[in-house]
Specification:
Blueprint (H helix, E strand, L loop, with lengths): L2 H17 L15 E3 L7 E7 L4 E6 L12 E5 L5 E8 L13 E4 L2 E14 L5 E17 L5 E5 L17 E5 L5 E6 L6 E7 L2 E6 L4 E5 L7 E6 L5 E6 L5 E5 L4 E5 L5 E6 L4 E7 L4 E6 L4 E6 L2
């Protein structure tokens, strides 16, 4: 898109936010209030996180096959108005960085954690310099969060179910916890998890989306944990998951091509529809706007949220 259109749409979003006007309940990528960041060099943007200290989105790009160690992955810095500030801010094979198929991201202090094949890479949030890699027993690490005690929780989406039977020789669906001292524990593990993907805190445990089903699963904090279905969703291949300040949830669904808001009473409201492979979702806490990645569309959408 042209820079003029990009900036004018960003100004329009700012006007909506400052005036207190309510956006339509459901938007599409072509709606006037939606900023579309396309043809900007993004390659398989899988997830993103809003860095409130730097006022920037950090976007993970798989840039190839999501299950292959090819060193092609990279992290982009994108401004809240959609301008790509640094397409390959962190890139596999550059300045000692390892990134193969980066997916979920999380920030704690000045540490940026990035879920990748076989583990989690940590970088300096300010400079992008690599800090350490935490290896995990599984393979398809998908999302990551930091708990208040500094531990990391990581989803492992497990083997592709399109093969019969699925290849479990190196990977089984799991939720891992990495203690601050580096000890790794499987909080939950088994194909019945339904390919855990997005993750957010939920009391002493976590909620995870299921890319292989249409559920939100609650995983407790005990070891080993019991897990149970917290919510059944309208459609499957559920991917991104974030919690809003009011306690409601943001969930993306590839099958529905939508971003939903799931209220505390369980009601589901579509916020954005007609999106190809909506993957990651993040909240710009300064402007109360959403950012959503379209993984197969190589695009990013910015929109106001009521």
């Amino acid at each position: 898109m042209s820079a003029h259109r990009l900036l004018s749409l960003g100004a329009a979003l700012g006007a909506v936010a400052s005036s207190g006007c309510r956006a339509p309940a459901t938007l599409t990528p072509s709606a006037p209030d939606v900023v579309s960041v396309a043809n900007a060099g993004l390659q398989g943007p899988e997830n993103l996180v809003y860095d409130s200290a730097a006022d920037v989105f950090l976007v993970s790009n798989v840039a190839g096959d999501g299950g292959t160690r090819d060193g092609n992955g990279f992290i982009s810095r994108v401004a809240p108005d959609g301008r790509v500030l640094d397409l390959k801010w962190i890139a596999g094979g550059v300045r000692g960085a390892t990134l193969d198929a980066p997916k979920g991201l999380a920030i704690r202090g000045d540490t940026l954690a990035v879920a990748d094949l076989g583990g989690v890479h940590e970088f300096d949030r300010r400079t992008g310099a690599p800090l350490r890699t935490v290896a995990l027993p599984g393979w398809m690490m998908n999302d990551v969060l930091f708990a208040p005690d500094g531990s990391m929780w990581v989803t492992d989406t497990g083997p592709d179910r399109t093969t019969t039977p699925p290849d479990t020789t190196r990977d089984v669906d799991a939720v891992w916890r990495v203690a601050p001292d580096g000890r790794v524990v499987a909080i939950a593990r088994g194909l019945a998890l339904g390919r855990p993907d997005g993750i957010t805190r939920d009391g002493g445990g976590v909620l995870v989306t299921t890319f292989g089903a249409n559920r939100l699963e609650h995983v407790g904090g005990a070891v080993p944990s019991r897990w149970d279905t917290a919510r059944t969703l309208p459609a499957g291949r559920d991917d991104g998951l974030r919690r809003l300040p009011d306690g409601s949830l943001l969930v993306t669904s590839w099958d529905a091509k939508a971003v939903w808001r799931v209220a505390l009473d369980g009601s589901v409201t579509p916020l954005l529809t007609g999106v190809t492979s909506p993957a990651g979702v993040a909240l710009d806490t300064r402007r109360h706007r959403l950012a959503v990645t379209s993984m197969q569309g190589n695009a990013l959408y910015l929109l106001p949220i009521r």
